[in-house]
Amino acid sequence: MKLSFHGAARCVTGSKHLLTVNGKKLLLDCGLFQGMGKDTDAMNRHWGFDPSTIDYMILSHAHIDHSGLIPKLCKDGYQGKIHCTDATASLTAVLLEDSAEIQEDDVKYENKRRAAMNMPYLQPLYTVEDAKKALDRFEQHEYSTWFKVGDGIEAMFTDAGHIIGSACVHLKVTENGKTKRITFSGDIGRYRDVILKSPQEFPQADIIIMESTYGNSLHDNAVSTPDQLLQWIEKACLQKKGKLIVPAFSVGRTQELLYDLNQLELERRLPELEYIVDSPLSMEATQIVKSYPEYFNKRIQKVLQSDSDPFGFKGVRFVKTVEESKLLNFKSGPYVVISASGMADAGRVKHHINNAIENSRNTILLTGYCEPRSLGGKLLAGRKEVKIFGVEKEVHAEIGQIRSMSAHGDYEDMSQWLACQDPKEVEKLFIVHGEYDVQHAFQQRLMRKGFTDVIIPEMHFEIGI
After folding, report:
1. Residue 110: how many CB atoms within 10 A of its CB?
2. Could you tell me the CA-to-CA distances from 39 to 33, 42, 374, 383 in Å, in that order?
3. In this structure, are 95 and 18 located in the same domain?
4. Do residues 259 and 284 both lie within one domain?
5. 191/277 same-domain check
6. How far apart are CA 249 and CA 389, in angstroms?
7. Based on the domain organization, do 377 and 418 belong to the same domain?
8. Which helix (H) or strand (E) holds 112?
9. Three-state SS at 347
10. How far apart are CA 272 and CA 250, in angstroms?
11. Single pTM value for the model
12. pLDDT digits (tens, 9 = 90+) for 358-408
């Protein structure tokens, strides 16, 4: 029995973990690398394994850094099913088609540059048609129900509380008469999430593969997120009369922002401005989230009794077409625009930042984790100049951050998630999905809690278990 790591190893994207048992190979997640600078494209094109040799695949949740290479996996030879929850299947469908459109558009732009330099053309990682074909492989399962994956392999999902449909994956794997209990955390949500239920307890495991994005930090809960949002809106739009640009992932973060703005309106504190959601994907994702109210926590269930749409409020407007999006660049402030992606490295928000970054009246508000090499990461690091679409831009816009907004749990949430486990029974605990220095700090914390063999695997590391 072997375990190898081909993504989210000493970095936060590209989740791919490969289990070999009884001569069969099971892939946990198949994520796209994002925000890795010049290395990103090469990392997404080279697997570290042969997709045609994979027998089974399980998907923890829909986010692109966990699902985004599934169409390429199928294109490159994977023939099996993709096991996930019902909501994950729904969200992944719209995310993968959107990702495919971005792949095709990015390659067209890059090939124009290559043509001018007599360089060979690139092909997209996958096309919209590839994405649609991959969706036929999805097989849906309920939480807390064991199902057969293959001979000697059973699996069960528990609610991870990260986004709608997100799951921790639990395996019972039998080889040569011996059974191992393996748990893969996926991404662990928060125990005080404004929309979702808390992560579920789970059975004792022998082997744990665990994310560590915020393994050395605590989220700032001293001031509520709606209050912080209101402060930024008042400063950026009412005082400076500028644009407030909020990069936000289409799934999870956008819905949380809309919910918090709706709360401000219910409290009659929301300034009368235009709140523009510039993302067709966010519009689709929000409708999908609304269709799974059974996954909401008790607080939002109570809100639903008096407010039929907790994501809608006066002044909100969804922008769908490219033409409408481009017209926003000619629209003077004040207004708020929420647009993907959250790391500001791709999508429409990159164009909004490009248009607004050199004007000191404008504000760019980051609301979640940004990989240090991404545009969002560079802005948070205080860069005075950043390159956008190949052109150096001076940073005159104010850069803000709300640290309390994250779908990832902090180290207290992750410790609470682990509290149902007896450390003496855990043979090995692998830390993935985190920056290397953060993982070291989290490793020490886990060892103080009694976990003895805590490993931080590097890319393509393989070990017997």
Report:
1. 15
2. 9, 6, 12, 21
3. yes
4. yes
5. no
6. 20
7. no
8. helix 86-116
9. coil
10. 24
11. 0.90
12. 999 999 999 988 888 899 999 999 999 999 988 999 999 999 999 888 889
